[in-house]
Amino acid sequence: MYNGIINVYKESGFTSFDVVAKLRGILKQKKIGHTGTLDPDAEGVLVVCLGKATKLCDILTDKDKCYTATLLLGRTTDTEDSSGRILTENEVNVTKEDVVDAVSSFVGEYDQIPPMYSAIKVNGKRLYELAREGIEIERVPRRVVIHKIDIVSIQLPYVTFRISCGKGTYIRSLCRDIGEKLGCGGIMDKLVRDSVNATETGKTFALQDSLTLKQIEAMVKAGQLEQCMIPVDEMFPKLAGYRVNENGNKKLYNGNLLVSGDFTTEYVEAAEGKKCLVYDKEGQFTAVYQYHEKLQAWKADKMFI
After folding, report:
1. What is the per-residue pLDDT across 25-73, written as a single tens digit (0 to 9) for each?
2. Could you tell me which of 39, 52, 40, 50 has the C-alpha nearest to residue 6?
3. From the candidates 18, 39, 64, 111, which is the catalytic residue?
4. Which of 42, 126, 163, 298 is the most exposed place for a label (fewest CB within 10 A)?
5. What is the mean pLDDT of the chain?
6. What is the full DSSP assignment across the chain?
7. Which residues 6+ apart lie within 8 Å of 174 measured at CB?
8. CA–CA gap between residue 221 and residue 237 (Å, rounded)
């Protein structure tokens, strides 16, 4: 079984779930998960976890992302992008200065209403399932953070911009909101995810390092996949690593508390809340532990057995 993280280039026409399904066939293993859905028409970075690394999915979901998006002004659709049913078409009587002002006004925090065609659950049902049934419900606005927007080009009715944003931001809905602010409506015409920054681990996944499914399949056939996989422990570059001794090994594999005498390292830096990587007696990465002053011991934070 493969255990690690792959930076996959999701191509247009595939859903994120399609990518996972295809990888299961290529890698001949079931334990695979992705860490952030991309729309079928969108392209770019999709971080995929394999084997033991699937336990990182919840951590990697809390991340900042960078995109390059193209906004088409003068049109609205039911999906808020170019794949949907056209609802309205309007003349675009705005200047480039108007566009710059409108786009810039969204930098910072704002309350965004998520699209109906999204995976958000309401009363146990996905919004996109309701949308496909022709049902539209009132959505609760969500506070999102737009760190930065740089306009790349304005060739009305098209506007291309690069955006850095926080977790939970829908670029489709941002395009909708910019269009509404300009009074002519707008949809997302194209989207590429340029990078994903896993904030807790400090690891960044960039577009130029991503691999297509065809490239991954070729590497598997050549027995070279491990060369492009990121081992789980490398996702925590800021944490120190310690190996346990024979006594600590038994505790480790039972998920028990560890004390300084359980490590082979002469000095293990301990402080309240401090985390570290723990390796078994053979040097195999096994868990992330956190120190608790009250217990005078290290407690398992996340196991990778």
Report:
1. 999 999 998 887 888 889 999 999 999 999 888 777 657 899 999 999 9
2. 50
3. 39
4. 126
5. 90
6. ---EEEEEEEPTT--HHHHHHHHHHHHT-S-EEESS---TT-EEEEEEEEGGGGGGHHHHHSEEEEEEEEEEETEEETTSBTTS-EEEE------HHHHHHHHHTTSEEEEEPPPSSS--EETTEEHHHHHHTT-------EEEEEEEEEEEEEETTEEEEEEEE-TT--HHHHHHHHHHHHTS-EEEEEEEEEEEEETTTTEEEEGGG-B-HHHHHHHHHTT-GGGGPBPGGGG-TTS-EEEB-HHHHHHHHTT--B-GGGBSSS-----TT-EEEEE-TTS-EEEEEEEETTTTEEEEEEE--
7. 69, 106, 112, 146, 163
8. 30
Q: Tell whether the torsion through CA atoms of 145, 150, 154 and 160 is positive or negative.
A: negative
pLDDT of residue 1: 87
Give the integer Cα–Cα distance in Å for 209 and 215. 12
Q: Which residues, at least 6 apart from 177, have a Cβ–Cβ distance to it below 8 Å?
A: 106, 110, 112
CA distances from 60 to 6, 191, 266, 304 (A): 12, 21, 33, 15
Query: Maximum CA pair distance of the chain?
Result: 74
The span from the CA of 24 to the CA of 32, in Å, is 7
**Rounded distance between C-alpha atoms, residue 116 and residue 136, angstroms:** 7
| 8 Å CB contact between 289 and 276 | yes
